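Pilot study result, target chain (178 residues):
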Amino acid sequence: MKAAVSAVTDEMAAAPDGVPVDVEAAADLAAPAEVRLWLRLQATTGIVNARLRSRLNAAHGVTPARFDVMAILDKAPEGGLTMGELSKRLMVTNGNVTGIVERLVRDGLAVRRTAPNDRRTGYVRLTPEGADAYRAMAQSHERWLTDLFKGLGREEMAALLALLDRLKRSARAGVGEE
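Predicted structure:
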């Protein structure tokens, strides 16, 4: 693996605009296709995420983590979610979510309430203002994705989705083999 990315230098970590460059472009062309594919997926994800992060911050003053928490809460049942449910859906620890939820509550975008039948269990949900703020961000996010993916036609996107679905199923099937 080291040989595959040995040509990567510190200057290649990010372009002048802060967006990561294609690390896979510096990979050894003799590297196995699986290594080159993995690097290409990582590079593409890094570029898209960096652009979205920059735009979310510039347009809405939020981080991707805050956006993700609000997205999960927007789709939650009427009563909201427990912190444990929220963490599980985001695939992070409760500690990672607590600070974000506290700031959402402080900003009036979310509320916490205690379960009527178990005072140890708390639920969090978006306020109407929080839901409106999230929906404005989601509309921007969708426009930005459309812009970022405009180089692909509908058929190409459908083919890429199908291939990535097969790749995901293949990766999941290999889990736990070691």
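One observation from the pilot: Strands lie at 81-82, 110-115, 118-126. A full batch analysis is planned for the follow-on phase.
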